């Protein structure tokens, strides 16, 4: 059985056939799906999605790409949701220095305030880290949290080791399946087995066999097969280690 540690199942891309998507994932052996929010305005949609589908669990947070529309009231709302709903993590939060037009100072403010909430509620975090590994690590050193997952990890081995030392697991998904992703595939093959978790980030980051199409949680076992091949271990071993690592990273699973 599999755990998809990052899937935006509430996204509009699944509106027309969400029941079918979830059924296919269950048929493929995906027993748990972590559904992270991206903005206060979709907290309710994430909750409703997780209530509708057994095995789906929520995380609540404000994604860096949504910080231009966010305000202090959204942080207050997040606090209320953490008290009331007790999610498995605070997320998706972090920094994005790739998308043009995003104010890095504003991003940093919301990131830091959400780290403080995660520390206060003793919850792990789901990190969005895009061309911002070093500033994310600086914030984590300053505001210690109980760990979590660096989603869609694509940093260096040195950066990976720092995340691991801070109690984080590293999320690997569809990007790892592309042959040209040589550095990422090398990391997937050589990192300690107890620090890797699997994810789809569906509907985004599709694996190579999907091409430019919509990603889906049912593809997680196929993504895992790439990891098994890279590490030279049986697929069953990948299932066991990734599932245990996910539960270690997110104890409320």
List its traits:
253 residues, alpha/beta, 8 strands, TIM Barrel, 9 helices
Describe this structure in words.
The structure is a single chain. This protein has 253 residues and is α/β, with parallel strands linked by helices. The chain has one domain (2-249): Alpha-Beta Barrel (TIM Barrel). Helix content is 42%, strand content 16%. It has helices at 18-27, 43-52, 72-85, 104-120, 133-142, 157-165, 182-190, 220-231, 235-249, and strands at residues 2-4, 30-36, 56-60, 89-96, 125-130, 148-151, 168-172, 196-198. Strands 1-2-3-4-5-6-7-8 form an 8-stranded parallel sheet, sandwiched between helices. Strand 1, helix 1 (18-27) and strand 2 form a beta-alpha-beta unit. Helix 8 (220-231) crosses helix 9 (235-249). The radius of gyration is 17 Å and the shape is globular. The model has no long low-confidence stretch (mean pLDDT 98).
């Amino acid at each position: 059985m599999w755990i998809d540690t990052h899937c935006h199942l509430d996204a509009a891309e699944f509106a027309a056939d969400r029941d079918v998507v979830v059924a296919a994932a269950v048929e493929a052996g995906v027993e748990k799906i972590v559904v992270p929010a991206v903005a206060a305005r979709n907290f309710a949609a994430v909750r409703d999605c997780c209530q509708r589908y057994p095995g789906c669990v929520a995380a609540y947070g404000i994604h860096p790409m949504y910080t231009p529309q966010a305000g202090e009231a959204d942080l207050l709302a997040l606090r209320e949701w953490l008290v009331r709903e007790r999610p498995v993590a605070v997320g998706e939060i972090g920094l994005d220095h790739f998308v043009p037009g995003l104010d890095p100072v504003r991003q940093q403010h919301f990131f830091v305030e959400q780290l403080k909430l995660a520390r206060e509620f003793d919850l792990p975090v789901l990190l969005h880290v895009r061309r911002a590994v070093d500033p994310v690590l600086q914030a984590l050193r300053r505001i210690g949290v109980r760990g979590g997952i660096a989603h869609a990890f694509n940093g260096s081995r040195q950066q990976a080791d720092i995340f691991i030392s801070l109690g984080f697991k590293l999320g690997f998904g569809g990007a790892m399946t592309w042959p040209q992703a040589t550095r990422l595939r090398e990391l997937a093959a050589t990192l300690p087995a107890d620090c890797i978790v699997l994810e789809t980030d569906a509907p985004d980051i599709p694996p190579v066999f999907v091409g430019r199409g919509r990603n889906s949680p049912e593809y997680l076992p196929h993504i895992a097969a790439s990891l098994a091949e890279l590490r030279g271990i049986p697929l069953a071993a990948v299932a066991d280690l990734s599932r245990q690592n996910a539960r270690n990273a997110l104890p409320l699973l």
